[in-house]
UniProtKB/TrEMBL annotation:
This is DUF308 domain-containing protein. It comes from the Bacteria. InterPro entries: Acid_resist_chaperone_HdeD, DUF308_memb. Pfam families: DUF308. The chain crosses the membrane at residues 7-26, 32-54, 75-94, 100-120, 127-146, 152-177. Keywords: Membrane, Transmembrane, Transmembrane helix. PANTHER family: PROTEIN HDED. The keyword Electron transport does not apply. It comes from Dactylosporangium fulvum.
Amino acid sequence: MLRREAWLLGIRGVLAVVFGILAVVWPGVTVIALALLFGVFAIVTGIEQLVHAMRPATGPSNPVTGFADGKGPRIARAVAGVVGIVVGIMAIVWPGITAVALAILVGVWAVLIGLSDLWLATRQHGGWSLALVGAIAIVAGLFIMVRPAAGALAIAWAIGVYAIISGILLLVAAYQLSHQGSGRGRMAAAH
C-alpha cells in the first residue's frame, strides 16, 4: 500500500515539475495554452486525490474527530479530487476564459489541494515535505486569488514556481514514503 502511495506521489511530483518548467520557460504562452496545461495537471492531480480517498479506513475511531483513522483525510481528498477534476475539465472545455478567471480557478484549486495535503500530513504518514507542499499551495493560492489581474505572465511564473517547488517536495515525500515501506518490510521479515 505504501509503495502505491509513493508511486502516485512520485507521478504527481514529476508532472508538477514538468508543468512548472513549461510555465516558467514559456511564460508568454496564451491563456488558452496555459488553461489546457493546467486542465490536464488538475485532472491528473484530482484522480490521484480520489485514488487516495478510496483507501479503506482502518483502526478504531479517533476520539477527537469521531472518524475511523484515515476517514477524515479520505473525505478531504475526495472533495479535493472532485474539485480538481471539475476545474480541470472546465479549463479544457472553456480554454478561452480570461486570465483573471483562470487565476481564480487556480487559486481556489491550490488552496483546496494545500488543505488536503496538510490534513494528510498531520493525520497520516507523509512527513514534513507533504506538509510544506500543503503550506506552499495555500500561500500560492491565496496570492493568486488576491492579485488575479496581475496578468498572464505573472500568473504563469507564479504557477510555474509553485509547481516546481511542490513537485520537488512531492518527489521527496514519495522517496521518504517508499523507504518507509521498505523499512517496514525488512522489520517484518526479521521477526
